[in-house]
Protein: Aspartate aminotransferase family protein
Amino acid sequence: MSNETELIQADAAHVIHSLHHPSAHQAPKVWVGGEGAMIHDINGRAYIDGLSGLWNVVVGHGREELAQAAYDQMRQLAYYSSYVGGTNLPAIQLAEKLAQRCYPSINTFFFTSGGAESSESSFKTARFYWKALGKPEKVKFISRMKGYHGVTLAAMSATGLPAYWPMFEPRVPGFVHIESPYPYRFVNPTPELSDGVAAANLLEAAILREGPETVAGFIAEPVQGAGGVIPPQDDYFARIREICDQYEVLFIADEVITGFGRTGRWFALEHYGVEPDIVLFAKAITSGYVPLGGIGVTDAIRDVIMSVPGDQRWMHAFTYSGHPTACAVALANLAIIEREGLVARAGEVGNYMLKALHELDELPAVGNVRGKGLMAAVELVADKASKAPFPASEQVGLRVQQELTKRGLFTRIIGDTICLAPPFVIPTETVDQLVQIIGDAVVEVT
Structure:
């Protein structure tokens, strides 16, 4: 079976896709290959990969050394459980490598298969920590609107994108949301304070409303990704860290998208001079070649895990935690990132891309261009002065996406916001092409 029509019919008959609805899957792309920052469909047409697959293929497509790393490890030991009482070489080596690269206070890691599992692991670890310290009432979590932390049940309850909720209600109790700092649209309730501090103070208000003795943690992406690529104000996270310290709330950084160089630093909170208590990672750790994620915890949290009585142990586990093949691919991937200087390159090419995208500011429909490192967004509006969005009935985002695809750029549009996060290896001339395509598509539709 190689005919595209037959393949699409078989897909429709047998595969349920993420965020599934048949109306959105009438003409799916059948992807068959990729090289660098380009992906190829079954008809042989090449497209710029505007979102690195799903924010994850940072070293680019077609890296034979990653396939080789998987092959070599699979021949030796493809898989064995790393439940307590057993371990393997790649898992040990990867944890050591992460201790070198992660925040100084974080030196210990638990491995998962992806971002949502990492969110779940962080929530359970935070509750465990407070119970072990004799504060069993600290069970609630505060997150932000426009935040995305996965869609397993607790992760979905933390995710601040309401479209994910209705058909799966009731959500897990104990999850509370505050507004995003969203600089383009944030309305400062306390103008005597900077927008960043005012937005962060919404966390303090929520903690006081819920009762500090009941709040276990605050979870936030350093740059909100699936909510529309939203970098915060520069002074936001310093105030967040202060508030978490003041009220004994664990600060959980969801670096599933931002970790391993996406913003031009190994981890994105480095831009803001703060460290979290728990860090989540996934996606770029293997460039998406095999599923792997995890959490890192501070030495203080690690010491609590290590010192409780045996009957109160950290009873959390996944079959594929510390999967030797996944860890081997991660090690090879991190070696590429280091060897080719891709973290610095993401920062440099990101600056180049953002500057080029700002040339679109003159278009009447472009309300806001924003970004951090090699992730950016172009938000389209009906009226620049009032920032009024286009009516949903006009389906501007969908139509722009169709025009982008027609012109050879495949990426994700959230509402009327074009999201961009190409592989770190994208050439600058391909960035120019990407920006040209966006400009043409926006003009065509609006």
Remarks:
- The first strand starts at residue 31 and ends at 35.
- The mean pLDDT is 97.
